[in-house]
Design brief:
218 residues; mainly beta; 2% helix
Length: 218
């Protein structure tokens, strides 16, 4: 038996039968012509976050417990889940110390700040990767947030320091291999903190990329 499929746009929360094309060996026939990420970008589900215009946050010299230097929050009632693809921090002023690690912390409802941020920190922007899309993100990115009930064991390394080969020797932490491995459901968040020597008054700001869409989470 052969099931015929039809090309169409991304549909969220599909209910009922789903048409697909299968081979005579009952395997699903797949032909990948578009590039990775093309369809999510086309559909307006991908967003870019930059804090380069914000006042940066100084690094710490020990693994954090409740202090998130930067915090990505998916508000309660938001109809989408946030699948992180890229996370990083970049030096925006001062001189960084030698060596550093970027730590992340997945934040469920019981770990969220007592006072939930309701607006982007000044200088932080979130834009749709598709400038022709009418979709806008409801995610909040805020600096200097105090989490509840978290301990050092809740934090894990996600990136190491790299030095770009530029005249300014710009320093940054970056992880581009996340690619959906972390998800932020509504009412949850993700904390960021960098650990490095004090340097000369270094201040850091976050950047990232993610996808937002409605999906059942188990």
């Amino acid at each position: 038996m052969l099931l015929e499929g039809m090309a169409g746009r991304i549909a969220q929360r599909i209910q009922g039968p789903i048409a697909a094309t299968m081979t005579g060996l009952t395997s699903l026939r797949v032909a990948q012509s578009e590039g990775e990420g093309d369809e999510s970008t086309r559909a307006g589900m991908r967003y870019i976050m930059s804090g380069a215009g914000a006042t940066g946050i100084a690094p710490v010299q020990a693994i954090p417990t409740t202090a998130a230097q930067w915090f990505i929050w998916n508000p309660n009632g938001n109809p989408v889940a946030v699948f992180l693809d890229v996370l990083g921090m970049v030096l925006i002023s001062g001189t960084a110390g030698a060596g550093a690690t970027l730590y992340g912390c997945l934040v469920g409802p019981r770990y969220a700040p007592a006072t939930i941020p309701t607006a982007l920190t000044a200088g932080v922007t979130i834009v749709n990767s598709n400038p022709g899309s009418v979709r806008a993100s409801g995610v909040i990115v805020a600096s200097a947030q105090t989490l509840q009930n978290t301990i050092a064991a809740n934090w894990f390394p996600i990136a190491q320091m790299t030095t770009a080969q530029t005249v300014l020797l710009q320093t940054q932490w970056e992880q581009r291999d996340i690619r959906g491995k972390y998800v932020i459901p509504p009412g949850c968040g993700f904390g960021l903190a960098n650990i490095s020597p004090t340097g000369t008054t270094p201040l850091f700001a976050p950047y990232g990329m993610w996808r937002e869409y409605g999906i059942d989470l188990e």
